[in-house]
Design a protein that fits this description.
- Strands 1, 2, 3, 4 and 5 form a five-stranded antiparallel beta sheet that branches. Strands 8, 9, 11, 12 and 13 form a five-stranded antiparallel beta sheet that branches.
- The chain is globular.
- The protein has five helices and 20 strands.
- With about 325 residues, the protein is an alpha+beta fold.
- The model has no long low-confidence stretch (mean pLDDT about 95).
């Protein structure tokens, strides 16, 4: 018969009856997420992601289709060992290098600590790393450190991929131990050795960005009503894409133009990779862009083939004026 096994720090359930624990579990996990803790038959395994030097309470009870099927819960407690001094923790970094992506294995000497790791340009300092972490918390997680800690902090040995790097460029891995509740730094940033990404092997695949007219956002808003009010004041440029070859992924975007950006000799393709992969359009093959009037922009597109090779970028400089806008109707 199916049953649930799970554990939490004892203080979460201090003094709770079986009924109160079950109500807490269902309120916290619901009938969907509780499925991660359902087992049948004899099982063995490891609980991870636990705080050091903390008593945990574990429960087991019958459960099926949203119903608790046993009258009582089996309970057990255990206390995790204290962590060592964070300052004494070392990291072993192993990296497999590509042109724009690296695969890393990180192993701390003390698996109890939570830490953040990432690949950084080789000239980054500890302050640069901490500034980047703050930026990730603020911009990716809207200042919610608990969400950041859940998704980004590691404990024990881990591995992962970092993409959007520049070819033929120096980087180094870094890790820093953090308090997973407060975000405090518990030790210095630890850096690995400098490594260089490889050169790019370009794909034969191509991408083209298509557009044949653009519109005055004021006219669209006036004729379309409140639904299109956000278009007021903008030039609206519909863009669609087409591609050739063995394409696994596509990305495209619009960049504010600087002199020479359309020339790969002045602005290498790799300069655009991180922005395209992080912020480019990858989910629709057609998109309306709201752009400033009388401003130079650069249209940029990229495709990646099934071998992970990048195409040469599509680049096109554009300049939109009200005089050139097409009627919206």
């Amino acid at each position: 018969d199916p049953y649930v096994i799970m554990g939490v720090p004892t203080y979460e359930w201090e003094g709770y009856t079986d009924e109160e624990i079950y109500a807490w579990i269902m309120a916290y996990y619901g009938t969907f997420y509780i499925t991660d803790f359902i087992f049948e038959g004899n099982v063995s395994g490891t609980f991870s992601g636990m705080d050091p030097n903390t008593e945990y309470t574990f429960v087991a009870f019958g459960y099926e289709a949203g119903i608790r099927t046993t009258d009582t819960m089996v309970r057990a407690t255990a206390t995790t060992l204290p962590a060592g001094d964070p300052a004494d923790c070392t990291f072993d970094f192993q990296v497999e290098v590509g042109a724009t992506t690296i695969y890393a294995d990180i192993t701390p000497s003390d698996g109890a600590h939570y830490y953040y790791w990432m690949a950084y340009p080789a000239n980054y300092t500890a302050d640069d790393v901490k500034a980047n972490i703050k930026e990730v918390v603020d911009e990716w997680y809207y200042g919610d450190f608990a969400e950041f800690a859940y998704w980004e902090l590691s404990q024990g040995a881990t591995s992962g991929e970092v993409s959007g790097l520049s070819p033929n460029s120096p980087y180094k891995l870094a890790a820093v131990i953090m308090n997973n509740h407060t975000g405090d730094y518990l030790a210095d940033v630890v850096f690995g050795d400098t490594f260089y990404t490889t050169g790019v092997t370009y794909s034969d695949a191509t991408i083209t960005l298509h557009h044949n007219k653009y519109f005055d956002g004021d006219q669209i808003a006036a004729e379309g009503g409140e639904e299109y009010a956000d278009y007021m004041g903008w030039a609206v440029l519909p863009i669609s894409i087409s591609y050739t070859g063995d394409v696994s992924e596509y990305y495209y975007s619009v960049f504010q133009y600087s002199e020479g950006m359309e020339d790969p000799g002045q602005y290498d393709d790799s300069i655009f990779y991180a922005s395209l992969l992080d912020n480019g359009i990858w989910y629709y093959e057609a998109m309306d862009f709201a752009l400033y009037w009388d401003t130079d922009f650069l249209l940029v597109g990229l495709v990646i083939d099934f071998d992970g090779n990048y195409s040469h970028l599509y680049r096109e400089k554009i300049h939109l004026t009200k005089e050139g806008a097409s009627p919206a109707s």
